[in-house]
Amino acid sequence: MRTITSRRAITALAASCAAAALAVTPAGAAPADLAATIDGDAVNRHLIAFQRIADQNGGNRASGQPGYEASVDYVVDKLRRAGFDVTTPEFTYEAYFEDSSSLSVGGQPTEGDVMEYSPSTPEGGLTAPLSVLPVDDTPGCEATDYDGTDVTGTVVLIQRGACDFAVKQQIAADAGAVGAIIYNNVEGALNGTLGDADAGRVPTVGVTKEVGEALAGQAGAEVQLDIQARLETVTTRNVIAQTKTGRTDNVVMAGAHLDGVPDGPGINDNATGSAGLLETALKMGGSPDVENAVRFAWWGAEESGLVGSTKYVQSLTFEQQLDIALYVNFDMIGSPNAGYFVYDGDGSTGGPEGPQGSGQIKEDFLAAMAEQGIEAEPSEFNGRSDYGEFIAVGIPSGGMHTGVEDLKTEEQAAKWGGTAGIAFDPNYHAAGDDLSNVDRVALERMTKGIAEVVQAYAQSTEAVNGMQSREERAELRAAQATLMAQSTAQAPKVGHGHDLS
């Protein structure tokens, strides 16, 4: 495993390369060891601020809502006081809002989650019998799955698996169903999305494996389904802050999404990532003694499909994208039943591989956590957080998180502590994601890891990028963007909070 270059070596390298740097603002004093300056209490203070902001603004910090705008103002004020150049570029998007929903089967209230972008039912809901689609290797993924099963005028129960939820409800609609209930094929809640507004054909909800298996024995029971949802054009903001020192043609970029879901204050998801990033920026200061400029970003509308980060990257020219040496992302870094995960940029665990250099970013984060005695694990690099558009255009990327709704294994509990068989965040996307939903030891460790790696890259990105000329970087980025486009062709942007299939 390669480790992060020592600060002594970085300092020597920076001195030898100084003549090649662009003209920059004179630097102020910077901490010799940024990670050592990180104090968990200071990070927690930002969480308290975000909680109070949510409490004073309808209980949430969702993009387009007053709580998000107040969160932006809080971050911007802190950064400007620390001497950063700060902008808040606006963007517009179509947001999906679920106003109300209910589901009952056989007269019994049934817990379910509306799939994002599901169409609404008529006002007052719909009533129809339940039909059950037989389970096979591709349940509900092919029109022939409905041979012998008449679902006309029914709400059809379909098992998850083998294809996107959008495909399942589209084929169900073609077969005559008036609604769909998709049940999980693994333990846990089913937070699904149809991908975009144009995909929705019939009202669709997701239920747990346990609920679905119980419903499978109730064919013919009366279903009452009521979904009232709407699309609304929302204008909101990102926050972009850059140091006044360092090369502006080899920028180190670090980001976290600032928004939460409408259901709660969004403290672990993602006030923790925002707070850790903010405290790292404040300790670094706006004019540190660095070789490379550092650009920090707090993204809006991640929960609506990575909108803020995607629009930001797409707003850059190819030359402006070339100015970004790499991007690192932090989404949920204080999960209450915490794990320690690093994005698997080289696909060594069998998942997708990121642009060249992403594997080294993984190794550097693993090394940074190992310095604290933490054996982190690689996590699939699937583009389902705000690094997605960066890797799509060939920018090396990486980052860390502490786990989402997956269950902690016995081996992980033995290694990291916590409780096996329980989700890393049992309050994921729920009203309970508040100040009580944070492992503050994990939060401090992860923030120290952020500071360690960002400071190292602020001095040198050679291990990630090599000694590239700008022409070489341009050729590599163009080639890798083409490869990434081929591997993700026509896939909708989906935030980490929802599953497509």
UniProtKB/TrEMBL annotation:
Q: Which GO terms describe its molecular function?
A: aminopeptidase activity; carboxypeptidase activity; metal ion binding; metalloexopeptidase activity
Please tell me whether the keyword Transcription is annotated for this protein. Answer: no
Q: An example of a Gene Ontology BP annotation on this entry?
A: proteolysis
Signal peptide stretch: 1-29
Q: Could you name the domain of life of the organism this protein comes from?
A: Bacteria
Q: Which SUPFAM superfamilies match?
A: PA domain, Zn-dependent exopeptidases
Specify whether Electron transport is a keyword of the entry.
Answer: no
Q: Which ranges carry the Peptidase M28 domain?
A: 238-453
The UniProt entry, under InterPro entries, shows:
M28_fam, M28_SGAP-like, PA_dom_sf, PA_domain, Peptidase_M28, TAT_signal
- Every copy of the PA domain together lies at 127-215
In terms of Pfam families, this protein maps to: PA, Peptidase_M28
User: What's in the keyword line of the UniProt record?
Assistant: Aminopeptidase, Carboxypeptidase, Hydrolase, Metal-binding, Protease, Signal, Zinc
Gene3D superfamilies from the UniProt entry:
3.50.30.30, Zn peptidases (3.40.630.10)
Task: State the family it belongs to.
Answer: Belongs to the peptidase M28 family. M28A subfamily.
Protein name (Swiss-Prot/TrEMBL) = Zn-dependent M28 family amino/carboxypeptidase
Q: What is the lineage of its organism?
A: Bacteria, Bacillati, Actinomycetota, Actinomycetes, Pseudonocardiales
